[in-house]
Specification:
- The longest helix is centred in the C-terminal third of the chain and has 74 residues.
- The protein is mostly helical and about 400 residues long.
- It has one domain.
- Helix 5 runs antiparallel to helix 6, helix 5 packs antiparallel against helix 8 and helix 7 runs antiparallel to helix 8.
- It is elongated.
- The mean pLDDT is about 80.
- It is built from 10 helices and no strands.
Length: about 400
């Protein structure tokens, strides 16, 4: 009888021992990369929205400066005393805002130059209306350039939302340009009425150009705000914006009618009154636009914060699951190593009956009276007969 040779347990190789760690690393790498990219993207979007809010604050501070500058220009051109209090107060408030956030928006240099020009105009004694019109026009151009700088440095011009993009374009570009151009149009109408007759043709050409410059941004402003309301998911935007927008649109229509020359002449008083109505409507509309824009940015930041918390939760869950899987694989590898380290049992012990098995009788055991091997027939072993055997022989 051939006894099979015992199988030798093989120890796991290095690849087998490192396989659980390789599997965990293969799962952890793409998950970590995805979570890192999501975290960075939401962080960049949140930083952009927070920076845009700084731009909204700066534009809100520039709005009173724009209104006070246009009013001061109209007073200087019309020969009326210029109210320095309104312009001084607006400049001081804007200077405080620039001192707080101007470094981050990189607007301090431009604001310093503009403020010097504004203070020079404030101290200027109105003498010649033509020179005052030119001087105020130069400062107004610097003010509009500062509006563009704030929009660019704050990221408002790169806003990803359709509704918020239309709002920032309306409040930061179209509305200031419309207010400044309407003021120039009314002031030029006042100057044209005082000019000699030989300059009438030149004045009408200038008025036509300024009329286009004033009505084009005003029309674009109305279109932008209606597009913002149509593309927005906010239910409050339309209710808050449409009413002051309708008022402003009616004032712009009146300005267009009063600035159209009839028989080659204009009514300066009518044009000035239309300009004042448009200016008042713009002052009521601009804070509404900026307030709605800021509310949209706050809502966006809150949504990005929720996304970042979801990213954190997903990362924590992935780490826990991968840790649990690593523990299972590590425990399985340890059991495999322990089994490999145990000595293999001999072949005889595998073939024989285990000692002490209660279900198997001992070797050579049997029932009483059974024939045993190599024993004559009939010679059965009986303990009782073996005990009384000598007495039976004596009888």
């Amino acid at each position: 009888m051939t006894v099979p040779a015992p199988r030798v347990r093989r120890r796991p190789s290095m690849v087998g021992r490192l396989l659980p760690l390789l599997l965990i690393a293969a799962l952890l790498a793409p998950v970590g990369l995805l979570l890192t990219q999501t975290w960075r993207q939401t962080g960049d979007d949140r930083d952009l929205a927070a920076r845009e809010r700084l731009g909204v604050q700066y534009l809100r501070a520039l709005a009173p400066v724009t209104g006070a500058l246009v009013d001061a220009q109209s007073a200087a051109v019309g020969g009326r005393p210029v109210s320095r209090e309104a312009l001084t107060r607006a400049v001081e408030e804007a200077a405080a805002v620039d001192g707080r956030i101007g470094a981050e928006l990189r607007s301090q240099e431009r604001w310093a130059g503009l403020r010097a020009k504004l203070e020079a105009l404030r101290d200027r004694v109105p003498t010649d209306p033509e020179s005052a019109y030119t001087a105020y026009g130069e400062v107004s151009d610097l003010l509009l350039a500062l509006h563009r700088k704030v929009r660019e440095s704050s990221g408002l011009v790169r806003d990803p939302g359709a509704d918020s993009f239309f709002l920032q374009d309306s409040a930061g570009q179209e509305l200031p340009e419309a207010v400044v151009s309407a003021g120039r149009l009314a002031d030029l109408g006042t100057l044209a009425a005082r000019r000699p007759a030989d300059q009438r043709t030149r004045s009408l050409l200038e008025l036509t150009g300024l009329r286009v410059a004033a009505l084009t941004p005003a029309t674009d402003l109305v279109d932008n705000l209606r597009a913002a309301v149509d593309s927005s998911e906010s239910t409050d935007l339309g209710a808050n914006v449409l009413t002051p927008l309708d008022t402003y649109q009616r004032s712009v229509e009146a300005l267009a009618a009063s600035s159209a020359p009839a028989a080659g002449t204009l009514d300066p008083a009518r044009l000035a009154a239309a300009r004042l109505d448009a200016h008042t409507a713009a002052l009521q509309l601009q804070p509404v636009i900026l307030g709605e824009l800021d509310a949209l940015l706050v809502e966006r930041i809150d949504g990005l914060d929720r996304d970042r918390w979801v990213t954190i939760g997903a990362g924590a869950a992935a780490v826990l699951l991968l840790g649990w899987l690593a523990a299972l694989l590590t425990a399985a590898a340890r059991r495999a190593r322990r089994r490999a380290a145990m000595p293999a049992p001999p072949a005889e012990s595998r073939d024989s009956t285990p000692p002490g098995d209660p279900w198997q009788p001992p070797v050579g055991a049997g029932r009483p009276g059974d024939a045993r091997p190599l024993q004559p027939v009939g010679a059965t072993h009986n303990p009782e007969s073996a005990q009384w055997g000598p007495f039976d022989a004596a009888r």
